[in-house]
């Protein structure tokens, strides 16, 4: 710690405080994330260790933030990263006009390359959202915040927590309480980020967990046994019933986008996780090969100067709204879902 001088605080999220600092000897600017080391009831090492382990396995990819070093500090750890100028939420918020089609393609290409790399290495991020996609001074997008990342196995023997992913980007199976899930949760989030890039506003901005599900259902239509057969196995399937609602054409969700953009978006926003288009395959979608072509990173907007960045809704969130106060369309709760 003595080798660095702290220049200021740049972020504070669910899992740690992030400082801007300077390496005294080299003069390099870095981001330092201080994370406390806690253990959950089951004795599983907490997010800090998860983040370190996941990051160490996937270094040297241009679309993943570089972890320069890790050292113990106080009761926890300090993670030292390359300093990034901004994040995608700032880019979306600060653009004077909507991003151009080729800029959106440029960001999506980098995001998908990063996600394809993670999934290839059996890592699911579980908290993809604009605030966790950092932007370098050269315009590169880098996936950050591996606090919720998990190694996954194709056998799927493990049970995971469903309280992952910031609500607006949370896949429907998580909203229905799934404890067994896969990298499809990241692909859903990729779809949400894509829509947000196109619209400059979030696709599904639910104010609580039930409303979140309603936002999704309003667009995709109420899931049925035909559209989502595995839904019946989800823990909260029986706890909540929505009135039947047809799907909207996705063009309505992202007006003014090209048919290819709508087609790519619809390949992520599907109920059955296994049917969501894998990142590596999405990179081959005609969307990326139809003019206007993806912008080069040097053509992407210059990120706004760093400042204290505001946070999107917290990652772990479970609001117990009395139903009469919720903004939900008529909803029948068969039992009061504890997690909804
Ligand atoms: P948390 O788990 O607390 O959300 P993050 O790793 O997402 O932690 O960091 C919180 C915020 O700090 C980010 O949204 C970003 O604004 C800022 N930040 C994180 N890492 C860096 C970095 N390497 N360079 C610049 N800013 C960063
Ligand atoms: Mg974060």
UniProtKB/TrEMBL annotation:
Catalytic activity reported: L-seryl-[protein] + ATP = O-phospho-L-seryl-[protein] + ADP + H(+); L-threonyl-[protein] + ATP = O-phospho-L-threonyl-[protein] + ADP + H(+)
Keyword Cytoplasm: yes
Transmembrane parts of this sequence: none
Listed GO biological process terms: cell division
Protein name: Cyclin-dependent kinase 20
Top EC group: transferase
Segment forming the signal sequence: none
Primary localization class, coarse: other
GO cellular component: cilium; cytoplasm; nucleus
Record EC number: 2.7.11.22
A Pfam family: Pkinase
Keywords, comma-separated and alphabetical: ATP-binding, Cell cycle, Cell division, Cell projection, Cilium, Cytoplasm, Developmental protein, Kinase, Nucleotide-binding, Nucleus, Serine/threonine-protein kinase, Transferase
Compartments (UniProt record): Cell projection, Cilium; Cytoplasm; Nucleus
Family per similarity comment: Belongs to the protein kinase superfamily. CMGC Ser/Thr protein kinase family. CDC2/CDKX subfamily.
Molecular function terms, GO-annotated: ATP binding; cyclin-dependent protein serine/threonine kinase activity
SMART domains named in the record: S_TKc
Domain spans labelled Protein kinase: 4-288
Binding site for ATP: 33
């Amino acid at each position: 710690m003595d080798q660095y001088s702290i220049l200021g605080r740049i972020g504070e999220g669910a899992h740690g405080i992030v400082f801007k600092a300077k390496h005294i000897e080299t003069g390099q600017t870095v981001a330092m994330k201080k994370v406390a080391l806690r253990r959950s009831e089951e004795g599983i090492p907490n997010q800090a260790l998860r983040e370190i382990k996941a990051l160490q396995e996937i270094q040297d990819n241009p679309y993943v933030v570089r972890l320069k070093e890790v050292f113990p500090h106080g009761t926890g750890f300090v993670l030292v990263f390359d300093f990034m100028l901004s994040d995608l939420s700032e880019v979306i918020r600060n653009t004077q006009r909507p991003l151009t089609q080729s800029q959106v393609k440029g960001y999506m290409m980098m995001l998908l390359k990063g996600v394809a790399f993670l999934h290839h290495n059996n890592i699911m991020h579980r908290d993809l959202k604009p605030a966790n996609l950092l932007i370098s001074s050269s315009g590169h997008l880098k996936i950050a915040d591996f606090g919720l990342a998990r190694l996954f196995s194709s056998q799927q023997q493990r049970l995971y927590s469903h309280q992952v992913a910031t609500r607006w980007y949370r896949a429907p199976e998580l909203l229905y309480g799934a404890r067994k899930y896969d990298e499809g949760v990241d692909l859903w989030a990729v779809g949400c980020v894509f829509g947000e890039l196109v619209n400059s506003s979030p696709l599904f901005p639910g104010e609580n967990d039930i409303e979140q599900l309603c936002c999704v259902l309003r667009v995709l239509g109420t899931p049925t046994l035909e559209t989502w057969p595995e839904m019946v196995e989800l823990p909260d399937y029986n706890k909540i019933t929505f009135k039947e609602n047809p799907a909207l054409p996705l063009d309505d969700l992202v007006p003014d986008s090209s048919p290819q953009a709508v087609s790519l978006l619809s390949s992520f926003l599907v109920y059955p996780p296994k049917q969501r288009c894998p990142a590596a395959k999405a990179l081959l979608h005609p969307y990326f090969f139809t003019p206007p072509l993806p912008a080069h990173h040097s053509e992407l907007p210059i990120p706004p100067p760093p400042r204290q960045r505001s946070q999107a809704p917290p990652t772990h969130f479970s609001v117990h709204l009395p139903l009469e106060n919720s903004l939900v369309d008529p909803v029948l709760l068969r039992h009061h879902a504890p997690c909804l």
